[in-house]
């Protein structure tokens, strides 16, 4: 499975460059996606140093020459709360044929 769309068990949300999103910084509404270019930590799920949230270029910095980190991780603070999925993404998941299997699984999970 590629990195286009994946699932983050830690933050309980879809990730990957196929997922539209907005910057997780509380004061920012920049439109990004959940690809590696925007992840705090520079690796899937944030690697060893990042929180795995997603930020625009303004809110990711290089701290101590390590990977790209958000302000919270760069300063040793606990991560920001995550933001909810965009309306665009929720609409895609509930209507797009590529999510048919997922929708069936949701129904079964509710029914069981
Ligand atoms: Zn972080
Ligand atoms: Zn931002």
Q: Main sheet?
A: 3 strands, antiparallel
- Total helical segments: 3
| Through-space gap between termini | 27 Å
Q: What is the tally of beta strands?
A: 5
What small molecules does this complex bind?
zinc ion
Q: Strand order, biggest sheet?
A: 1-2-3
Q: Residue-averaged pLDDT, rounded?
A: 92
Portion of residues in beta strands equals 15-25%
Q: Enumerate the spans where pLDDT stays under 50 for 5 or more consecutive residues.
A: none
- Succession of helices and strands: EEEEEHHH
Q: Work out the helicity level.
A: 10-25%
**Structural classification:** alpha+beta
Shape: elongated
Radius of gyration from the alpha-carbon trace, in angstroms: 15 Å
What does this structure look like?
It is built from three helices and five strands, in the order βββββααα. Helix content is 22%, strand content 19%. The protein has a domain at 6-83. A hairpin with an 8-residue loop joins strand 2 and strand 3 (31-34). The protein is elongated, with a radius of gyration of 15 Å. The strands form two sheets. A three-stranded antiparallel sheet has the order 1-2-3, with no helix packed on it. A two-stranded antiparallel ribbon has the order 4-5. The chain binds zinc ion (2 copies). One zinc ion (ZN) binds next to helix 1.
């Amino acid at each position: 499975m590629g990195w286009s769309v994946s699932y983050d068990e830690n933050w309980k949300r879809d990730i990957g460059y196929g997922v539209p999103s907005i910057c997780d910084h509380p004061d920012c509404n920049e439109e990004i996606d959940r690809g590696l270019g925007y992840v705090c930590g520079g690796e899937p799920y944030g690697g060893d140093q990042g929180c795995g949230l997603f930020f625009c270029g303004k809110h990711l910095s290089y701290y101590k020459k390590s990977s790209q980190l958000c302000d919270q991780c760069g300063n040793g603070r606990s991560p920001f709360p995550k933001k909810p999925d965009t309306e665009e993404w929720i609409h895609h998941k509930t209507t797009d044929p590529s999510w048919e299997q997922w929708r069936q699984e949701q129904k079964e999970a509710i029914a069981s």
